[in-house]
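Let us begin with a simple case.
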Amino acid sequence: MEIQVNPTWEEASRHAADVIVELLRRKPNAVICFATGNTPKLMYRELVRCVREGRVSLADIRAFALDEPGTVSETNVPFFRAFLDEHVYEPGGVQDFQIDSLNPLADDLDAECRRYQAAIREAGGFDLVILGIGLNGHLAYNEPGSTRSSRTRRVQLAPSTSQVTAAYYTGESAFEWGLTVGLADILDAKQLLVLANGESKAAIVQQALEGAVSERVPASFLQEHGAVRWFLDPAAASQLRGKTLS
């Protein structure tokens, strides 16, 4: 496990983007699972800049989304798919045939989850999963209580997760459930990249990195992965007790 504490979130985001660039130079057809939300926005901006400067290409990747809330916009485009279209896929030149997304409008959600799981397996699993960490320690939509062996499924969202999700989308408040890749899917990935910034994440970052490995804090399972890189700003790292950073 590698932990980088950067002086600013802008610098952390640049270094995190460099991890993706490095992977794609080694393996242009890498299978990448993308997170959404405010946390990775600057990293995605840096990645797109690298694409536009010709330093790297996304033309051969296989792209998956980490999760998707059950509420869908008036355009019938799932919110997280629209986020990735805006911040990664369209500016980075990723084509529809390269992309797989979870569909919360599917008539049979269990069948949709099985389809997605089969697509992950057919792709050979994830080369890289990009992660944030929830205030309650969730990874993707794997809320506290999720088992390490969990796979793609429908989940009920914790109130705090629902509120944070709704805060991104003005006028929306009904984020009660979602579809998510499981902890086993994440931990099976060859490489993990975890982003956290701000004082509000300090306590849960400390628990995830230095606390007991437990279903109570799903992000604590990252301690068991052999190739995980954390990118933090000083505020998010402020409660770490030193041994982690030594």
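The second case is a distinct protein. As before, the sequence precedes its structure tokens.
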Amino acid sequence: MPATTSLQALAQDLPRLWHAETTSPRDRKRLLRSLIADVTLLPEPDAQTMRIGVRWHTGATDELAVARPGPGRTSDAALEVVRRHGATHTSAELADMLNAEGLTTGEGMPFTAGGVARVRDAYIIFGPCTVAVQDGEVSVKQVATERGIPADGVYDWLRHGQVPARRGPSGRWCIPWDPASREIYRQKVAGFFRLNPVLSKQPVSFSAATADV
């Protein structure tokens, strides 16, 4: 058994030993095994956080709370920027703001307008409604109203690419309302009501513009 002074010196030198270029991944694993008896993942109600219990060979225990890793996870700092400015700035403008602050996506890449739009979808952060839909297009709210279904159902189809639409500069969905697109939405609505037979107690009336669908 080494002397206490030798063990203390070794413990103080562990960071340098761990980060040394000559220390291989295999050596680091052996170091961990020599120090840690076991690691346990503990229940945690926050889906964004992991709680980790560590039991050392000395018998001491520690508990750590860390952000749950995963590709595509938006950092808290980036999410705060999108939430604070989302209602007044387009997705392209937000991307410029995020990149100027040195923030990156969950994959470590610079933000783009499309990347910010996906963050809006995931966290339900609405953009400014200053960009009107073009002629021949309708909004999500219009589709939901005319078809008598919740807007969340339309957003779900859009997020999964199941229905035609385009994204405006603000990230707003603009839905083409030609006969082919109306038929696709008609079929989706029919399937929606089959899955949700008791959607509303109120009668649903359709406008004359959609009576042919």
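The chain has nine helices and six strands. Confidence is low (pLDDT under 50) at residues 197-213.
Keep these points in mind for the review questions at the end of the chapter.
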